[in-house]
Amino acid sequence: MTLEQLNHWVGTRPTLADALGIELTALTEEYLEGRMPVDGRTHQPMGLLHGGASVALAETLGSVGAATKIDPTKQACVGLEINANHLKGVRDGHVIGRATPLHVGRSTQVWEIRITHEETGVLVCISRITMAVIDLK
């Protein structure tokens, strides 16, 4: 799938990614990248980026990235486990997530997602997601 097709798939229906303003920005053989605004949609009450929004970005990128490594007519990827360490607070701008596969196997995939502040490059969150690869019937 192309980046345009992936953005259409992720953002043309009412989804969490659409509600949070997540857009996919780069796709290579090595990674998938996306960005998310840090604003009222993604803030927690103290005006900082909500940790759950960071996890939603991470899961979106890891899940879409995993889908690029399978034949979607025969298989699907579903999340098994995700974790995140929130390292730095952000109040505004955008964050950039880069999802990189650590393991692409027949029945599982593991992806690392590094989220940085777009303007400063500071690491905001690091996450890892494990995906199950399931056969469609």
List the helices and strands and how they pair.
Layout: H1 3-11, H2 16-20, E1 23-27, E2 32-37, H3 51-67, E3 75-86, E4 94-104, E5 108-117, E6 123-135
Antiparallel strand pairs: 1-2, 2-4, 3-6, 4-5, 5-6
Summarize the structure.
Keywords: Hydrolase. This protein is α+β, with helices and mostly antiparallel strands.
Overall geometry: globular
Low-confidence stretches: none
CATH class: Alpha Beta
Query: Rounded to an integer, what's the Rg over CA atoms?
Result: 14 Å
Strand order of the largest sheet: 1-2-4-5-6-3
* CATH topology tier name: Thiol Ester Dehydrase, Chain A
GO molecular function: 1,4-dihydroxy-2-naphthoyl-CoA thioesterase activity
InterPro entries: HotDog_dom_sf, PAAI_dom, Thioestr_dom
Keywords: Hydrolase
Organism: Hymenobacter swuensis DY53
Report on this model:
By secondary structure, the chain is of the alpha+beta class. It has one domain: Thiol Ester Dehydrase, Chain A (Roll). It has helices at residues 3-11, 16-20, 51-67, and strands at 23-27, 32-37, 75-86, 94-104, 108-117, 123-135. Strands 1-2-4-5-6-3 form a six-stranded antiparallel sheet. A hairpin with a 4-residue loop joins strand 1 (23-27) and strand 2. The longest helix has 17 residues, at 51-67. The chain is globular, with a radius of gyration of 14 Å. The chain starts with a helix and ends with a strand. The relative contact order is 0.19. The model has no long low-confidence stretch (mean pLDDT 96).
